[in-house]
Specification:
Layout lengths: L1 H26 L5 H12 L6 E6 L4 E8 L2 E8 L4 E6 L1 H5 L9
Antiparallel strand pairs: 1-2, 2-3, 3-4
Length: 103
């Protein structure tokens, strides 16, 4: 059981790091771990003027549009681990099969 908890913690830590890298790469935002947790809290609070549910990607992943630091971000939220899995650009969200064409 303890090994499984450690594995889950490693997955969460990796997800946070990956999300931070994608936010910087795709939005030019240098997000701290606290920023990621704030975005998760916004998602968990439900739809409001800053957060809009966009679509369900799988049984445990949902995509949300979040206005954060005056930018609209497309966040993929992992419902199972309660963490941001990654950030997508608007183009990637609107063209999921053509994301490799984006420069």
């Amino acid at each position: 059981m303890e090994a499984q908890l450690e594995l889950t913690k490693q997955k969460v830590d990796y997800s946070i790091s990956h999300a931070q890298e994608r936010a910087l790469e795709r939005y030019g935002l240098n997000l701290t771990q606290k920023d990621i947790f704030n975005i998760v809290s916004l998602i968990q609070s439900g739809e409001n003027d800053k957060v809009v549910f966009m679509k369900r990607q799988s049984n445990y992943r949902t995509i949300w549009k979040i206005n954060y630091r005056d930018q609209d971000l497309y966040a993929v939220y992992n419902n199972r681990h309660k963490v941001i899995a990654t950030f997508l650009t608007e183009y990637m969200f609107n063209n999921p099969k053509n994301t490799l064409k984006e420069g």
